[in-house]
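Deliverable D5.2: sample structural annotation.
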Amino acid sequence: MDLDYYAILGIAKSARPDDIKKAYLQLARDNHPDRIRDPAQKAEADRRFQLITEAYNQLRDEKARREYDRTLDRKVRTPEEEARLFYKNGELQEQSREYTNALKYYYEAMRLQPEKLEYMLAAARILSLDKGKQRQAAELYEQAMAKHPASPEPCLELGGLYMRSGMHLRAKRVYEAAIRQFPNHDDLKRKLAEAAAAEKKSPARGR
């Protein structure tokens, strides 16, 4: 897996040794597998912890770090490969709940491939976590819907955002429009039923 050790630790390439150690200790504490009991989540935590440790071991040694930096400088990637790398690093940051960093990486991926659905949905997902940015998230979902009319995913995500925000009528309208395009989609049918039921209970909201 071609990952950026600096991105894994959430630090800049110019970070000082103290910054590297501080970032590692924080991430190691937050992602230590011993804190998790669920087997599936523990396996994912093991993977993250190994990556964090690998990154730290590479960057804490001055000689190894210089060689790694030279390796980074020598690599020539296509825009698609670069975008994928940004996206993967964004996933790592999101898994570590470093949402601000994750959004930066997702935006970089979108800068290189602005119409790729996977990157648009990832950025919108992070934006939707912040109440002050939910309008931006909705706009990004709408852009994804317009650019990818053959995919129901943006419709499901936008409807879910409206549902979580208590805007049940808006969610209902999104699902209704989507079902006209995807009449046999079971998830959309179920979500529409949920939105309709919620809208009946609170008819004054979400208009």
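Annotation notes: Residues 1 and 76 are 16 Å apart (CA to CA). The chain has three domains: 1-75, 78-137, 152-207.
The annotation will be released with the project's public dataset once the embargo ends.
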